[in-house]
Amino acid sequence: MKGSFNLNALLRDNIKKLVPYSSARDEFKGEASVLLDANENAFGSPYREDFHRYPDPLQHRVKEKLSKIKGVPAANIFLGNGSDEAIDLLYRAFCTPGKDNVILVPPTYGMYEVSANINDVAYRKVNLTPDYQLDLDGIAEAIDSQTKLIFICSPNNPTGNSLNRTDIETILVNFDGLVVVDEAYINFSKQPSFTKDLSEFPNLVILQTLSKAWGLAALRLGMAFASEEIITVFNKIKPPYNINQATQNIVLEALDNVDQVNSWIQEIVAEREKLSATLADIAQVAHITPSDANFILVKLEEPRALYNFLVSKGIIVRDRSKVELCEGCLRLTVGTPAENEELVSAVYTFYGATNN
């Protein structure tokens, strides 16, 4: 690895030359009372709320409110249709199909690989170590002059653990491409977010979401935090109205409830520890990876048979037993106390154990 970051050198040539689409609402600033610029239906919507006007293409009000919560300037925030949109934009902006490559560190979130395949970008896998940490030597060996992105999920999915912060910083300092730190589960962790370090690392992109701790998965709103230069690139190539007005309205209201979300986070973490301790007492459970997320990875006997048994009881978990380094494991999301009790009872029933 070497460290000589130059954003312009990373960008694809066609993106450098791209003249972005200019929406009707991009062409004037301020307030207006008569809007006859966007070919909308001026008579309204066949719904109790008016959705006949196009939404704010840059979601200024949502970003301002998020800025206060996250402690990140609004200019350093990108909002997308889930984090998946930001992931796709990273490939489209910085990776030339059939030429460039990225580094993935499995086991990890599957969309990094799917997006690479969609965009015809080669990916090089450097497995995590057996204790689910970064293999710095392996990553250094995998990097070449065409490596543009390194994806790091921390807390990691599906393992649940946080990756060593100093290892991530080592990559940030020594790699001249973009380092994408996916913090979808950061709210459940004691580890600090990398959002406080944006000014220190110009090649850092942080992904977060409102789908987990904020309980807004159905709205599909993801966040990316990066330098103003990188955010400008995202805004240049994103669809003009990528976040609909209904989503913006609901999110603006939801963001007023920080105390409620913090209370849920505390309860979920407490339930996570309780669930882990209870399952650890079962003889057929070999190992539970310490988690900083809202799920646990459990290594146990007969994982596929247990998975099928749980499905028959109407309990759906994630079978990760065929994933490299997660052999024999199920990933269990932490539910409500009642849901967790139902899960534990079913596991005890399957193994013929006694729940004391």
UniProtKB/TrEMBL annotation:
UniProt key word Amino-acid biosynthesis: yes
Catalytic activity: L-histidinol phosphate + 2-oxoglutarate = 3-(imidazol-4-yl)-2-oxopropyl phosphate + L-glutamate
Cofactor(s) needed by this chain: pyridoxal 5'-phosphate
Keyword vocabulary terms for this entry: Amino-acid biosynthesis, Aminotransferase, Histidine biosynthesis, Pyridoxal phosphate, Transferase
One Pfam family, short name: Aminotran_1_2
Enzyme type, top EC level: transferase
InterPro entries: Aminotrans_II_pyridoxalP_BS, Aminotransferase_I/II_large, HisP_aminotrans, PyrdxlP-dep_Trfase, PyrdxlP-dep_Trfase_major, PyrdxlP-dep_Trfase_small
GO biological process, alphabetically ordered: L-histidine biosynthetic process
Metabolic or biological pathway: Amino-acid biosynthesis; L-histidine biosynthesis; L-histidine from 5-phospho-alpha-D-ribose 1-diphosphate: step 7/9; Lipid metabolism
Start and end residues of each Aminotransferase class I/classII large domain: 49-346
EC number(s) recorded for this UniProt protein: 2.6.1.9
A GO molecular-function annotation: pyridoxal phosphate binding
Modified residues (N6-(pyridoxal phosphate)lysine): K212
Assembly and binders: Homodimer.
NCBIfam families with a match to the protein in the record: hisC (TIGR01141)
Record-linked HAMAP family: HisC_aminotrans_2
Family indicated by similarity: Belongs to the class-II pyridoxal-phosphate-dependent aminotransferase family. Histidinol-phosphate aminotransferase subfamily.
Protein name: Histidinol-phosphate aminotransferase
Organism, scientific name: Sphingobacterium psychroaquaticum
Gene label: hisC
